[in-house]
Specification:
By secondary structure, the chain is α/β, with parallel strands linked by helices. It is globular and about 75 Å long. The chain is built from 18 helices and six strands. Bound molecules: adenosine-5'-triphosphate and magnesium ion (MG). Keywords: ATP-binding, Nucleotide-binding.
Length: 375
């Protein structure tokens, strides 16, 4: 039996969104097709499968009730698991977050004294700095269910549908003592393009404001955006706490390398420090990505992570995505580049550089001299 790609995609989408009605409908069509193609056994087996009751994704069965976009049938809000990976923050950001968590934990006491404020925090910063991860950590710390609404998926191509989506998203939340995470908030501002009717942006912004104001005090709202300057000032004001997530500083980078690359083995602390000194421009997501790539290599080759290769990838990362060089011996060119990098930014004595590159100290000396002459 041939199944065309669009049907397959529809089937997968329905399966992943636990949309059993669509799964059954497509399954029924396929069973009929099997019968027509003179395969009654297979048709019967498929029909038997389709009669089974679908298992709800969560025992509570809430999945069925998630508000969805009328056109795409995608859920507007989803409950996500608390993250299991650790979060590394610069001191300044973690200080603000600590304060926010303390307020959140003592909200009833604060409101009795009349000094509570809305529990809203806006996270802003470049991609891959840990905004989404931090939102999950806040939910975990407060032991609250974590509801994620990605504003870009709430925006519908159908006129008028976006505001309706936003309303049903907010209507869904007040029933739970939850953390509501509004991710990718700048998607709203993107409505300012010419595809949309002029009044739509205004309407959508208003609906978001009404939604935020309608939430009871026990709902914690976290917003995230890469472009805070695109955010409507009235939305900006609804979040009493604002935390900028910056690129990780050197101490945080060292902790990240130690964790993601060396799985917190203390013996590797000096390597992690060296990597931190040399990876000034990298985000948390990039450090994690490169670390995992290097660990995959090291497992396959049954060798410890190849530090020179990682350093070369960091060096190349300044003009794009960090990529490990293919598993080969270092070329003289690469050794030279590394020697220069380690002397200039790594602050490493030449004997250690020689050891790392597997050459003599004299050789390192020569590399550095040749580099200079070549300039
Ligand atoms: N500060 C950090 N501490 C630990 N891990 C981090 C950190 N920043 C990024 N990561 C890693 O990178 C991944 C991606 O980060 P995350 O999705 O939280 O970034 P983001 O700021 O939300 O990015 P975007 O703006 O693209 O949505 C995380 O799941 C985590 O594994
Ligand atoms: Mg994110």
């Amino acid at each position: 039996m041939n199944v065309d790609a669009p049907t397959l995609f529809k089937l997968f989408e329905a399966a992943i969104s636990a949309d059993y009605t669509t799964v059954r409908r497509i399954g029924g069509q396929l069973a009929r097709k099997l019968a027509e193609e003179k395969d009654p056994e297979a048709a019967k087996a498929l029909q038997a499968l389709l009669r089974k009751r679908g298992v709800p994704l969560q025992a509570s069965g809430y999945v069925e009730a998630l508000p969805r976009d009328a056109g795409s049938r995608l859920p507007l809000v989803e409950e996500e698991q608390w993250p299991t990976t650790p979060l590394f923050l610069n001191e300044e950001s973690s200080h603000t977050i600590e304060q926010f968590l303390e307020d959140a934990a003592n909200i009833s006491m604060l409101s009795e004294e009349g000094v509570s404020s809305r529990l809203g925090v806006l996270l802003y910063g470049a991609p891959g700095t840990g905004k989404s991860l931090l939102a999950g950590h806040i939910a975990a710390k407060l032991a609250r269910p974590f509801y994620v609404a990605r504003l870009d998926s709430v925006i519908s191509s159908r006129l008028g549908e976006t505001s309706k989506n936003i309303r049903s998203m907010f209507d869904f939340i007040p029933t739970k003592e939850a953390v509501l995470f509004l991710d990718e908030m700048d998607a709203i501002a993107k409505l300012r393009d010419d595809r949309h009717e002029l009044g739509e942006l205004k309407r959508v912004v208003n609906t978001v404001l009404q939604g935020l104001d309608s939430l009871t005090d026990d709902v914690i709202v976290i917003g995230a955006t890469n472009h805070p300057h695109l955010l409507d000032p009235a939305i900006w004001r609804r979040f009493p706490y604002k935390v900028e997530l910056r690129a990780p500083d050197e101490d945080v980078r060292a902790a990240m390398w130690l964790h993601f690359l060396y799985q917190d083995r203390d013996a590797e602390a000096s390597h992690a420090r060296l990597l931190a000194r040399l990876s000034a421009a990298m985000s948390g997501a990039e450090i994690e990505g490169l670390s995992l790539a290097a660990r995959r290599r090291s497992i396959i080759n049954k060798q410890p992570p190849n530090l020179p290769h990682i350093l070369l990838a960091i060096d190349a990362a300044s003009d794009g995505v960090p990529r490990l060089p293919a598993g080969h011996e270092l070329s003289p060119e690469e050794r030279k580049r590394l020697a220069r990098m380690l002397v200039d930014k790594g602050d490493l004595p030449q004997t250690e550089i020689a050891q790392m590159l597997g050459v003599s100290r004299q050789m390192v000396h020569r590399y550095l001299r040749e580099e200079k002459d070549g300039e």
